[in-house]
Amino acid sequence: MGPMMARRAGRGRSRPARPAPNRLLRRLRRWLFYLLAGVLVGPAFLILVFRVIDPPVTPLMLIRLIEGHGHDHDWVPADAIAGHLADAVIAAEDNRFCEHGGVDWQAVGEAWRDWQGGERLRGASTITMQTAKNLFLWPDRGWLRKALEAWLTVQIELLWPKQRILEVYLNIAEWGPGIYGAEAAARRHFGREAATLTLGEAGLLATALPNPLGRAAGQPNSAHVRSANRIVRRIASLGPLLACAQEGFARR
Fold first, then answer.
1. Which residue, 116, 153, 196, 220, is most buried by CB atoms nearer than 10 A?
2. Whether residue 169 sits in one domain with residue 206
3. 93, 206 Cβ separation under 8 angstroms
4. Per-residue pLDDT averaged across 122-132, rounded?
5. Which range of residues forms the domain containing residue 191?
6. d(CA 42, CA 44)
7. Same structural domain for residues 32 and 67?
């Protein structure tokens, strides 16, 4: 067959058929299934891993590092963290932490009623919610992050005991520019180990949690000292609400 005949024969060959619309739809459904499975199963897998393995880094730590804040983080087990700090954080951030299932609906209702009464709308974020945000998400107040936070909160409450939630939170919380966790915070602000924190020092650290970049626990102003004293007094009134923090932490 000559060159001309070969070219004509080649032109007569049919091109590969394009995928039919229903085939494309099947592919799209398959990828959506994989994406949904990843969203549903992926976080649960990581949460199970972090139940027994201490998370080495968080998104917030990486963001702050890029911003130039440094990275001072020394993970310690719960028995190397003063029980005073566990009590103070519950008293300051989430009084019903030991009782609720991740969302404190009573606090949500109180915040809603206060807002309807003309007060500024305040958050009702629990320690579990803050753990979910700090461990997996980014610092933002958008609805997407809030939705993801809620989904992660439910899973953490189902897969971790309360003591593990508190242990992880106290080890990844931000306590100053580039300062993460109770051990780094205790050393930087008070020159001591986290296990030896006094009740007053624990109150000052708890006071700094809402604004760790603007409040230095080791150099408090008079307003922060008053807030810390209120937290210390509240601890005495919580009683059984601190039950889940009574074992595992350093009690001296």
1. 153
2. yes
3. yes
4. 84
5. 56-102+160-245
6. 5
7. no
150-162: pLDDT as tens digits:
899 999 999 999 9
Query: Which residue among 33, 53, 73 closes a domain?
Result: 53
Say if 140 falls within a structural domain.
Answer: no
Q: Are 176 and 138 in contact (CB under 8 A)?
A: no
Under 8 Å between Cβ of 205 and 81 = no
Banded model confidence at residue 50, pLDDT cuts 50, 70, 90: very high
> Rounded to 5 degrees, what are φ and ψ at 26?
-65, -40
CATH number at 192 reads 1.10.3810.10
Q: Are residues 61 and 179 in the same domain?
A: yes
**In sequence order, what DSSP letters do the residues of the chain get, joined into one string?**
--HHHHHHHHHHSPPPPPPPHHHHHHHHHHHHHHHHHHHHHHHHHHHHHHHHS-----HHHHHHHHTT---EE----GGGSBHHHHHHHHHHH-TTTTTSSSS-HHHHHHHHHHHHTTPPP-----HHHHHHHHHHS-S--SHHHHHHHHHHHHHHHHHS-HHHHHHHHHHH-B-STTEEHHHHHHHHHHSS-GGG--HHHHHHHHHHTT-TTT--TTS--HHHHHHHHHHHHHHHHHGGGGGGGSSSSB--
The sign of the CA dihedral 151, 50, 247, 215 is: negative
Q: Work out how many domains the chain is built from and give that number.
A: 2
